[in-house]
User: Fold Phage abortive infection protein from Fusibacter ferrireducens.
Amino acid sequence: METFKKKHKYVKLLTSILIVVVLFIINQSEATIWKATPNFLNWIFVKNKDYNILLNLSIGYVISYLFYIMVNYFPELQNSIEKEQENVYLRIARHREVQLLLYDLSSVWGDIFLYSKQNGIINDDISLEQHFNFETLCKILPHINLLAPAFEIEGYERKILWVEKLEVDIERFTKDANVFLTRYKDMPPSNLYYKIFYLCNNSFLVGQLPILLRPAIYLYSENTNLGHAIRTENLKDDINKTFSYIIELDKWFFREINEINKYANDEDKITSMYSFVKN
Assistant:
């Protein structure tokens, strides 16, 4: 549908011109269209001068417009709708995999934000954009001790350390992201593909974070915090880009729900939601 919209992006302009042209043709008509024409409408319904050349051009424009609408616009619109209906289940599958990627990211940064809320480092009532903010990150990082327990898991005697949790969660994200990049590389929009590629392969807050953790522990031993691994003063551009891509990925997820539900059958429509930031 996006390809169709781009191809016919001037249809509204052409239709607006058509209205003006039709009014001009009415004005040049020899027939009496409205006998008791109000004075303020004389410029439309009362012929004052002959503009034969413009009249012929106007009639040609109407014919060309009708030809365009009947031969190009409506058939391509119908084909686009049918194609969207055919692709809806592939889009549902892709949407589900983006949801898994967001879950993976939430297991990393959502849990860090949750820990920060529980320990009074950040406020409870801030938005997603305020969570993914450079200043907020700088406030949080020194409080995440990589060799301290992250969360206690019921049934397990050994507590999971932050460094272990981050490594496992990010490994899961990169595996899921690489599957996504392989399966959907030919599906638009390409900017969605690039954002996931960047998070997986370039971002030092996500895909490249594990290579920073162990060296930091080697240098700072038991006192190592996440701020020792993520040197914010050197990575500000990457941090801001990573945060903007995660936010845009989250917004795409919710926009895509509306697009999918336009074409999906009632039983296949997406109704379940999720929250990236945990409470």
Q: What stands out?
A: DSSP finds eleven helices and no strands in the chain.
